[in-house]
Request: fold
Amino acid sequence: MSKRRMSWLAVVVLTAVLIAAAAYWSPHAPPHAVPPRVDKVRIVHAHPEVVVSMVRALFEAERFMRSDPEAALAIVSRRVGAEEEGLGPIWKKFDFSVGMSQSSLSTIEDVARWAMARQYVTARPMPNFLSNLYLAALLAVRPERVTVIR
Reply:
């Protein structure tokens, strides 16, 4: 894959990750910052090959970020309209890697508790997020990256 295409992939992936992370972790995020719910079950199960391709693209973006972190930072800073100097210090603290670990699942549960405690969502019994994860594509591409206890 060309470096130019790899750069574009990194922009798309990283921008989505940064926006989602900011929206879910910031108590000041505007409601429109959180992406609308998509009927993921229907789409994913109807097109598993597309999901596998997306997972492969995520791994390509991960490789690009590791091989050229300065270029990846420049791409993301342009895409989100932030100065590289401002993003740089926090950029180095992130581990941009693709996978689903037990700690990731625990983080999802923590975010749900946080959102319920602050009444961003209606409080209810904790859902079973594990049953909502679609791990087949990740298992097909890089099974060692799935460390969730299932």
